[in-house]
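Quick question, first post here. What does this chain look like in 3D?
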Amino acid sequence: MTDVSLHGDVGFALVVHRRRDGYVAEEIYYGLRDSAGTWQEPDHLSGGLVGIEPEAPDEVLEALRGESMAVVSESESLVHTGRCDLDDGYESVRFLEVLTAPRVDHIEVIDLNRPGAAPVRKPTSHALSVLVALPGERLLLRAGPGGSGHSSPIRFDGAGITVEGTS
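> Answer (accepted):
Ran it through. Tokens below.
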């Protein structure tokens, strides 16, 4: 498992692996935790080729083109979160996969719905991270210290993404 994102009793996992043909691929899974605290069998949401070798720092830096962090992919899925009674507990959830420079040690996640709340530091133990926005969530993402270059903050919410400082 490359990265996880937990939202209460809903968990999301990013798995990066090498396919039989030698290409690197990524998969996103999700699962629910029951009332006893046990995680149910995960369901596959999406997957595809990565396009670079995320374990090769030179390839990561070349792909980032001087930035500390960049969006690799964005997707949306209807997921059974169990958080609401509408639509039998299914909600539209947005996923963002982010590539970070080798020296970035975390992504700072700021909840824009809670002004003044302390940012959450999401550790980056791998070049690829998954971030999740449930309905109503509005997040601002910043690369933590150690980046090799400048990186514009990314606004991420149920409507999509906006890289600040670009038009």
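The chain has one helix and twelve strands.
The longest strand covers residues 69-80.
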